[in-house]
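sry for the spam today, last one i promise. struct tokens for design, 268 residues
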């Protein structure tokens, strides 16, 4: 699949940034601006998100293949990969398939495990079901302004930050109304795969994994202390760094500290 992407900077080394579920490449522009002085930055829209094509399949294998196709198209032999949440799982899967094409790996607030088969992650899984249901219940083609859509979503999502993030997926049509850019039906049908994606995989024992860092939000439920075993099973010798006073959206909630940590890891 030919993905939509944005390009910033002209550095010798390339960083490819991969967004998470319900996100898009423009969510990471502020991070790209801070890194483009030293690196070439590629920000992608994953399939069924942003301006990339829609498809019924939404697996990590497919998303890793999309990334591989883009790197071949852009003649990128090796890159630093940074991915958040679902995007973190995409780049981990890519690295398992093509470790020789990854210089360093930066995984943001996600682990290589299933998030649907553990009782203590029920809230995480339920949240996604709730989000898909709430967005699917709104037909944006019936509205001429964002405020009216915001009022409806506010009943389900009282937190303004979450609502604003989800509403970035609204795109104005030529007739002045709106539509959802994300493929809600495909995400709903593939939610089990999105929540899992790793339970059936084995480590690539024949390949040397790149230097890898996992950035965990202190207040996020996505990475627990005992996840270090699963992380090191796939990516031996990985660092797990806790970002204080941050939830799942580490890069937004602790922007400066997140960038400082990334730059230190990249030796900028």
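last one done:
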């Amino acid at each position: 699949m030919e993905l939509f992407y944005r390009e910033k900077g002209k550095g010798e080394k390339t960083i490819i940034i991969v967004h998470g579920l319900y996100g898009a490449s423009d969510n990471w522009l502020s991070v790209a601006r801070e890194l483009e002085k030293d690196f070439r930055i590629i920000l992608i829209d994953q399939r069924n998100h942003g301006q990339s094509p829609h498809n019924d399949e939404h697996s990590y294998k497919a998303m890793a293949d999309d990334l591989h196709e883009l790197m071949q198209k852009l003649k990128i032999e090796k890159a630093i990969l940074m991915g958040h949440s679902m995007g973190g799982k995409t780049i981990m899967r890519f690295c398992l398939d093509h470790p020789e094409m990854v210089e360093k790996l930066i995984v943001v607030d996600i682990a290589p495990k299933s998030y649907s088969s553990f009782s203590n992650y029920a809230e995480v899984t339920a949240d996604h079901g709730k989000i898909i249901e709430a967005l699917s219940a709104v037909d944006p083609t019936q509205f001429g302004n964002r405020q009216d859509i915001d009022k409806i979503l506010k009943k389900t999502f009282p937190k303004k930050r979450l609502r604003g993030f989800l509403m970035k997926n609204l795109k104005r049509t030529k007739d002045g109304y709106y539509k959802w850019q994300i493929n809600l039906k495909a995400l709903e049908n593939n939610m089990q795969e999105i929540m899992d994606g790793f339970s059936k995989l084995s480590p690539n024992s024949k390949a040397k994994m790149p230097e890898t860092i996992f950035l965990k939000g202190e207040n996020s439920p996505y990475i627990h202390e005992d996840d270090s075993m699963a992380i090191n099973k796939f990516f031996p010798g990985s660092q797990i760094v806790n970002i204080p006073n941050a939830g799942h959206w580490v890069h937004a909630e602790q922007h400066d500290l997140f960038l400082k940590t990334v730059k230190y890891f990249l030796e900028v």
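The chain has a mean pLDDT of 93. ok im logging off now
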